[in-house]
Write a structure and sequence with these properties.
- This protein has 73 residues and is an all-alpha fold.
- The chain is built from five helices and no strands.
- It has one domain.
- The longest helix has 17 residues.
- The radius of gyration is 12 Å and the shape is globular.
- The termini are far apart.
């Protein structure tokens, strides 16, 4: 699904797919995979067009404490 939405440039959908991956217990318990999934969420969220859904995801994601573990770009 991620590859298909990347091909269609549906970045908000790609972000949601990575969010579902990020929310799984296997990813949350592995710091390397957790950071990779969270990084992809942020990237695709920022690439998505501005609308209410994007802003809602930005506000919900900004409350995640794991964002502090990501390097600054």
């Amino acid at each position: 699904m991620i590859k298909l939405d990347q091909h269609n440039a549906s970045y908000i959908s790609v972000c949601k797919h990575y969010k579902h991956i990020y929310d799984t217990p296997q990813i949350k318990n592995n710091p390397v995979l957790m950071k990779e999934a969270l990084k992809n969420i942020v990237i695709y969220l920022l690439l998505s067009p501005y609308d209410n859904e994007q802003q809602d995801l930005v506000h919900r994601l900004s409350e995640d404490k794991n964002l502090e573990q990501l390097p600054k770009y």
